[in-house]
């Protein structure tokens, strides 16, 4: 309401000075979404990077056992408490998040590259290739993710390799589908056909017309892969088919905490669980904001 | 504006969906928890229809789900035998192990062995019937042993050639090699009826002559045993025994809710208080120890890594053995519920007391110095460019083993031995243990375990689980198996551990370092008199109910 009044006021003022002036929505009243988004992106990336680095630095401390301070409730000395071997849960949580983020980056990157290659190949290599790749996409999408991750992880000998292979090989399908659709559509787009007729080389076309279109889709897809990758890594580890139990992974922490819940040690699960949820959320929002920023349709908002 | 709002909604929706899925993941964890509990509750309800736990002649016991015999109650498929030996309850055995682990009689009235150890003659009672009314004869005994040998699932009967019945009450065992401790094998083979045995159905519908009859078995949930009214021995005092299979936390909650009379538990819960229950700790030979590969690193014919450059040094192994503070480990990890272990068979009749060592960190450091492992600047010892390093393996998911390994690692670091920990699954652990120390759990009511761990496998130059070989030790164990009396064999088993010059103890080769024997802990309802237990073997399960027929309520 207030904005409206102001605006009316302004119009009246403007009306007095000159009718030809273009009407403008004053900047102060409407915060710049673009700027705030960039700011948010920056802060989020900084925060996640800080967590990742802190986690790497704290890895030694996370594994350190100290039987003189077992089962401490959260307090000033140990923010998140300690577990049954006297390990600092704060260090473990950070190290776990860090590990999750790094695995997330790795798997999301691999997945996204697979998706890019598969999607483009399906779109440009003709009908047969399209049929084969689309069939593969349907096949992988048809199996529940967690099951597929478990199977691949076991086949690859569990541990770090198993989890990375499992998550990377099961998360590429939806992005591949999006890219395939996008490329097919682009190839038929009038301005690209025109460019071809005008003699632009294939490479030129790809560079100047296709990539700017595909990149936002790809980047957003990449970042939106993170939350899934991280959650699936944690779940499959929780179920015992992923990372080995000496590693400070969130899945390991949560599964270990289970047997202590009945004796009232709530902090073992609560803080790592919340941290995982927050990290995943942050990635999700990050991806969404980035899409708003890069998507041509909403780029001016 | 409208469009933007829509976008924002969409992004919030997505964020919310991610949050929800994260919450779901957490919920899943909680779900496992409550699932276990409700299982316990429903199982508890079944019992409350028939009898509550306070009836004077029935008892409800919560056991580990791993204790449920997969192949049923069929001695031919491992019931009673194997890694976690216990009395078969439903079937009778020829002999039994007494509380001091010497041999007593069940079905047998007498046994003797020929001079060369190749023929065992056992006479049995003539007044025993199976629960279907048919008498139990020597034919059934011979049939049982021949069947168990044939199935050869869990119970190792390779030393038996065949069994035959001489008459109704005499059975003769023809051996392939002398086996002086045959009486210990006879204590775990339940006798099955020849006339009523079908390997497909016997496991779930067993007919035996033991103290109890299997009344009901709900797979994955519970087993109900009922006293055998025609039992030939002293009539069981507990008329009904219900065993619920539940995870440790569910067992804890079931006891808290008063649904069970006895619930297994571990050191994790031992600091808790429970009204109406007390914590009972039973001594065990359920030991934990590391194997220390006694040869240098190489690759064997199958391409597996074998041996370890640090533990191949006998002085290093001796240093580890005296450099580990077992009592600290028990206090830290087991909350005090355990005893120091110095061998795989502490306190059993074949245990050699010279295995015991004093904790001596200075002595350990001196041994390492003497061996040339000198302290480097990074407080890690090294010798000729080789670092004193151990990659300690433990079975993943076992929190007690993990904690023991962590504590051991911390103690070794103080000696200047750098340690890393690694959790492994049993699918790979056996191969990995050939080159890295693995935390094992052993402890059985037979000296055969010494043989399994220390004896060189025929045709190779190494024992089975960890590279090690000593002809003198092998010789004593071979003699022990060939000896004509149990007493004589006990002495030879002791000599195999240490004969004054060589053996597997501190002054000998010390190819395994034994750390602790873990007390088996149970929540026991006040008023329940659990009969005296014989020292529990490895496995936190059926051993407890070996003498459930003698339990009573006061």
In summary, what is this structure?
Chain A is 73% helix and 0% strand. Chain A has helices spanning 2-17, 33-57, 59-63, 89-124, 127-142, 145-155, 159-168, 173-187, 190-197, 202-238, 250-261, 267-294. Chain A is elongated, with a radius of gyration of 25 Å.
Topology:
The complex is a heterodimer of chains A (301) and B (554).
Chain A: H1 2-17, H2 33-57, H3 59-63, H4 89-124, H5 127-142, H6 145-155, H7 159-168, H8 173-187, H9 190-197, H10 202-238, H11 250-261, H12 267-294
Helix pairs in contact in A: 2-4, 2-12, 4-5, 4-7, 4-8, 4-10, 4-12, 5-8, 6-7, 6-10, 7-10, 8-10, 10-11, 10-12, 11-12
Chain B: H1 2-50, E1 58-63, E2 95-97, E3 103-105, E4 108-113, E5 119-124, H2 138-151, E6 160-167, E7 170-175, H3 182-186, E8 212-218, E9 222-227, E10 240-245, H4 248-256, E11 262-265, E12 277-282, E13 287-291, E14 298-299, E15 305-306, H5 314-322, H6 326-333, E16 338-340, H7 361-370, E17 374-375, E18 381-383, E19 386-387, E20 389-395, H8 399-415, E21 418-424, H9 426-432, E22 439-442, H10 448-454, H11 471-482, H12 486-497, E23 512-518, E24 520-525, E25 528-529, E26 552-553
Parallel strand pairs in B: 1-10, 1-11, 20-21
Antiparallel strand pairs in B: 2-3, 4-5, 5-7, 6-7, 8-9, 9-10, 11-24, 12-24, 13-22, 13-23, 14-15, 16-23, 17-18, 18-19, 25-26
